[in-house]
Write a structure and sequence with these properties.
466 residues, 3-hydroxy-3-methylglutaryl-coenzyme A Reductase, Chain A, domain 2, 2 domains, five-stranded antiparallel beta sheet, 17 helices, 11 strands, globular, binds (R)-mevalonate
Length: 466
């Protein structure tokens, strides 16, 4: 606590049991096995959904496995703000909470100024906490930032239910981000010849990519593949030569590293080919990562026995609720307009959790939309299906996120949001984000097929105005 203003924590010190720190073990990852798009497919989760689940890909890994007690704090939402803060001390540390609950923004202005441009201040939004998000047998408090109260209430209720049912299991594949290195010519034959010559020099381009940002190699990742193809369209004069550089990004989101690598390769191609033959008719166009992220798929699953669902909605038996959830899920599968809104609900939860962790929510959105539309029409990212006496949910989507790098630890509050949720790796981060996305989807569908969205909202607002 050294160096912190003495007044900051008076509300916490009044009730300060020793903070609980969950044990954390890191399971080493097996080596990267190539790009997921080349990997064999897994069996689909449900044969009736096979069109959609053909996305499922091999070499998913189980996340870190640890166990701890449930961190649910009963009646948390009914406490005053001070009492909630005090209650959090039972499931987090005083240091983490004092950093998270920034009281004097002047202290962090230099860090905010470094984070962005034209900075004049800090912008406040409500910071909420879910007390128990259980992922791979580790129960974690998770900070949410959103202006939509029903998002927090819904995620809170569903996360508590999920925890009672054993929690979410999350699986991930080693994160791969790809970049595009693009040249253009008016001559399609020349494009094909050029592309073939570039492909022959694959090892050289990979060497240049890794030399331009050696940090990833040092961390066990780096550029591992590059391929070239030609693209054009009837009516267009231009043919594009598009190189795809695949990079294993380890714990970072990787935008900076991958863009640096792609630009280095493009400049090397320019030096090697274009400057030597200035009238070749081939021009450099651009180098930039693609937010299409099939190499970052994460799956979160939950199984909810009917008996546990009995208590979730008053006067709706668990089996009936499960049946209606299955209908709602099938509706999203057959109706693209519904799938868009279904997926918006999932992103509600993921963005709220991603915001205090300083993640690039626009990248998450771009890759999620791309993934949802892979079949040519918008499909739900999460589906629900009855299996024996339980409702099973599965969320499958790319998570473009980073545990280190970028602005992930730029202020003490951001670092504290990671600490609060026991996020110590990329896989922890993906597990937490997808668990909240799945909980959010469950809660939204459960409200829609029972009391309806307006009644849920009205109840919430009535509580707020009392
Ligand atoms: C509202 O922000 C989100 C929902 O519309 C999601 C859904 O319809 O599934 C409730």
């Amino acid at each position: 606590m050294g160096g912190k203003p003495p007044t900051r924590l008076c509300w916490l010190r009044a009730l300060a049991p020793s903070a609980r720190r969950a044990p954390h073990q890191h399971t080493p990852l097996p080596p990267c096995g190539g790009h997921p798009r080349n990997a064999p497919k897994l069996a689909s989760f449900n044969p009736s959904y096979e069109g959609f689940f053909c996305f499922q890909i091999a070499f998913f890994h189980d996340f870190t496995l640890t166990t701890n007690a449930m961190s649910h704090i009963s009646g948390f939402h009914r406490l005053s703000i001070d009492k909630r803060r005090q209650a959090l001390l039972a499931i987090s540390s005083e240091d983490t909470l004092s950093d998270l609950l920034v009281e004097n923004t002047n202290d962090i202005m230099p860090a905010l100024d470094r984070m962005s441009e034209n900075v004049v201040g800090a912008f406040c939004q409500p910071l909420s906490v879910l007390t128990s998000v259980s992922v791979n047998a580790l129960s974690r408090p998770v900070a949410l930032v959103t202006e939509e109260p029903s998002v927090v209430a819904a995620a809170n209720a569903a996360s508590a239910l999920f925890e009672r049912c054993g929690g979410v299991r999350a699986h991930y594949c080693q994160p791969v981000t790809s970049a595009q290195i693009v040249l253009v010519t008016d001559d399609p034959m020349q494009a094909m010849d050029f592309s073939a010559r570039l492909a022959c020099m694959r090892d050289k381009w990979l060497y240049i990519a890794n030399a331009s940002d050696p940090g990833l190699i040092a961390a066990g990742g780096g550029a591992f593949d590059i391929s070239f193809e030609c693209m054009n369209r009837a009516g267009f004069k231009s043919t594009f030569i598009v190189g795809t550089l695949d990079v294993h990004t380890v714990d970072v989101m990787g935008a900076n590293a991958v863009n640096t690598m792609a630009e280095a390769v493009l400049s090397a191609i320019e030096r090697e080919f274009l400057l030597a033959t200035p009238h070749s008719g081939v021009e450099r166009l651009m180098a930039i990562l693609t937010n299409a992220s099939p190499g970052r798929i994460v799956q979160a699953t939950i199984s909810l026995p009917f008996s546990a669902l009995d208590q979730y909605k008053k006067n709706v038996p668990g089996q009936r609720l499960a049946q209606k959830l299955e209908y709602a899920s099938q509706l999203a599968l057959v109706c693209p307009q519904r799938a868009v809104t279904h997926n918006k609900g999932i992103l509600n939860g993921i963005f709220a959790a991603a915001a205090p962790l300083a993640q690039d929510t626009r990248a998450i959105a771009a890759s999620a939309i791309d993934f949802a539309c892979q079949s040519g029409t918008h499909k739900p990212l999460a589906v629900w299906q009855i299996h024996e006496n339980a409702l099973q949910g599965i969320l499958t989507m790319p998570i473009v996120a980073g545990y280190v790098g970028g602005t992930t630890h730029a202020t003490p509050a951001i670092a504290a949001a990671f600490e609060l949720a026991h996020i110590h790796s990329y896989e922890d981060l993906c597990g937490v984000l997808t668990a909240i996305g799945l909980a959010q989807n469950f809660a939204a569908l459960a409200a829609l097929v029972t009391e309806g969205i307006q009644a849920g909202h009205m109840k919430l607002h009535a509580r707020k105005s009392n």
